[in-house]
Specification:
Elements lengths: L25 H6 L20 H9 L2 H6 L1 H15 L4 E2 L7 H5 L3 E4 L3 E4 L6 H6 L5 H4 L1 H14 L6 E6 L1 H10 L7 H9 L1 H25 L3 E6 L2 H4 L2 H7 L1 H11 L6 E5 L6 H6 L4 E3 L6 H8 L5 E5 L8 H15 L5 E5 L9 H20 L2
Parallel strand pairs: 1-4, 4-5, 5-6, 6-7, 7-8, 8-9
Antiparallel strand pairs: 2-3
Helix pairs in contact: 4-8, 9-10, 9-11, 11-14, 16-17, 17-18
The structure holds coproporphyrinogen III.
Coproporphyrinogen III binds next to strand 3.
């Protein structure tokens, strides 16, 4: 069934220009549920260790140095666009650097991932956290967005800015690094409710400001990553202790005036609650079939996803049916952005990424011509 909004607009595929005020890029059109000449495709973590170009730069520069040097961050952002022709570029950064401006000492330790030297342990630590504006603390990323959006404008490839959701950031701030059980985070959340509220409120303030600043710098879309709330929490804790803050964040970011993707990993048990927090587009993780997830989300809301990133480790005969499953689940509806259902893994063969992009393009162009 065609989307109601789709009936009133011209298809650029038919040769006519997009009506005034409508975006022309396939990615931004899909984010608004508008018809596209083919399904747009980009991949979470599309810039990174699976690419030899990235590894070569990373040999010579630290992670934070790459992020904070606008020319280097811009170069890494563009690497996968040049190599594979993705339909959107996500600015090269990470969700954790904004914590540095708040007073946390972050480092990326080779082979171990992120590490915070002074994690939050007591309620008082929360009161020591600052909430400085992104213009002061994240200039490198804002400048990288300016550079990349200027570079990609002639190709009509939009730049995506991003930030972490408050629970995911709080978990790093409290655990000091990766965790399997979120024991410290949950103990703090449940034993210090007032400090939890202050911490989440500060994180919402900083992330909302950062996201809006990225849009002002030229990001044409924004994505919020809530990687760990769904892994860590049952429904009632999510609804009580996370949902109000995510809702506030999405509400505050509406003033940016660009589409916002809500990517909440592992929330299949309470997808409707995560969707209700907000976001124009719902990022679907790899655990539910897309057809099921989209029906639960509602077909009036655009979706992004949701290939299991480990499928990219399989040979083509194993990978192709998994791509088909996602495209079949989307059933040619407007408002689907093809993506992985969590970040691309470092061991992913470059050739698999290349083939994936070509295949999604080819299959979805053909099916619309035949329609
Ligand atoms: O998508 C992109 O290409 C943009 C860049 C990006 C990175 N991290 C670069 C990165 C984005 C969007 C992120 C998001 C991020 N970072 C999330 C949310 C998404 C998710 O995967 O759930 C989270 C939880 C983090 C925190 C983080 N950063 C971890 C746990 C690690 C170490 C393990 C890992 O997955 O790499 C990082 C480091 C990191 N962030 C690297 C890159 C390219 C590797 C750094 C290196 O070269 O050593």
């Amino acid at each position: 069934m065609a989307e109601p909004r789709a009936l009133t607009v011209a298809q650029p595929a038919s040769g006519g220009p997009a009506p005034q005020g409508e975006p022309t890029s396939v990615f931004l059109r899909a984010c608004r549920g508008l018809p596209t000449e083919r399904t747009p495709v980009w991949l979470m973590r599309q810039a990174g260790r699976y690419m030899p170009e990235y590894r070569a730069l990373r040999e010579r520069h630290g992670m934070l140095e790459l992020i904070r040097t606008p020319e280097l961050a811009a170069e890494v952002t563009l690497q996968p666009i040049e190599a594979f022709g993705f339909d959107a570029a996500i600015v090269f950064s990470d969700i954790l650097p904004p914590l540095v401006g708040m007073g946390l000492e972050l480092d990326f330790v080779r082979g171990e991932g992120p590490h915070i030297a002074n994690p939050i342990g007591r309620p008082y630590d929360v009161d020591l956290l600052g909430t400085p504006p992104a213009e002061e603390t994240m200039q490198g990323t804002l400048e990288a967005i300016r550079i990349v959006s200027r570079e990609l404008a002639p190709r009509d490839v939009p730049v995506i800015g991003f930030a972490g959701a408050p629970f995911t950031l709080a978990s790093y701030a409290i655990e000091g690094g990766a965790t399997k059980d979120f024991a410290r985070t949950k103990a703090f959340m449940l034993s210090e409710p007032a400090a939890w509220q202050r911490l989440m409120t500060k994180l919402v303030t900083v992330q909302a400001d950062y996201l809006v600043a990225q849009a002002e710098a030229g990001a044409a879309a924004l994505q919020v990553f809530d990687s760990w709330a769904g892994r860590a929490l049952g429904r009632s804790d999510y609804v009580r202790l996370v949902k109000p803050y995510n809702t506030r964040l999405f509400e505050a970011v509406r003033r940016a005036g660009v589409p916002v993707v809500n990517f909440s990993l592992g929330v299949g048990a309470y997808l409707e609650e995560a969707v209700a927090c907000g976001g124009d587009v719902i990022g679907v993780d790899w655990q539910l079939p897309l057809v099921t997830a989209w029906a639960r989300i509602g077909h009036d809301r655009p979706v992004q996803g949701n290939l299991d990133p480990t499928a990219l480790l399989a040979p083509w005969r194993g990978l192709r049916p998994r791509i088909d499953e996602v495209l079949d689940g989307a059933a040619g509806r407007s408002g689907h952005v093809f993506n992985v259902g969590h970040g691309v893994l470092p061991s992913t063969p470059v050739e698999s990424v290349r083939r994936l992009v070509e295949y999604v393009r080819e299959r979805t162009s053909r099916s619309q011509e035949g329609a």
